[in-house]
Design a protein that fits this description.
The protein is 49% helix and 16% strand. It is α/β, with parallel strands linked by helices and 218 residues long. The longest helix has 17 residues. The chain is globular. The protein starts with a strand and ends with a helix. Bound molecules: cytidine-5'-monophosphate.
Amino acid sequence: QSIPVITIDGPTASGKGTIASLVAQRLGWHTLDSGALYRLTALSCLRRGVDVQDEAQVQHAAQNLNVRFDYPHIYMDGDDVSDAIRQEEVGNLASQVAALPLVREALLQRQRDFRVAPGLVGDGRDMGTVVFPDAPLKIFLLADAEVRAQRRCKQLSEKGISANLTSLLADLRARDERDRSRTHAPLVPAQGAHIVDSSQLSIQEVVNKVLDLWSGIA
Ligand code: C5P
């Protein structure tokens, strides 16, 4: 019997991370925030002055990430980078490095290593399509772009980071477009994925929906 995985994929700011960690908490499972690995790769490039167009250099950065996850803290080279990787600049750069096939390949096994008993909830763009294609439950989480921009704006302002709704919306649409249209592991629902639109749902309602779906399988 293989270790169970629930995959939650979807566009930027659809609430994947929040839902994944609440579902994992309820089940007593581990989490994989796969976007963090792309963000860490981007930050590592920024800090080392690596040109993100240079695929071999970025691949090298991805292979040599020296990171430690201690949720909610993430450390790189001993530094707490939990806030630094959430900056919009790093997110935008992350979606550029994520389009490079050698970078995705470099991060693949690292992601699969998170599959540890009793189970894993993995969130990202290609959890159900590429990383854990055998997952028994796959969710594709959607929300309207305006709703996502508002959520992101609120999240940032709660952290004391000032944000502009119009530019957030534009960034988010650009990032969605890049994630959807790339050749390698584009953002598309996995075969058999349950599509959940969270635009009109509370966090708790989405969590319950996922848990209901899981209890129908387990
Ligand atoms: O989810 P998050 O916004 O943290 O992800 C940052 C970027 O990393 C995304 O815009 C996407 O381009 C990339 N990503 C990816 N595959 C994943 C997770 C994230 O390509 N599984």
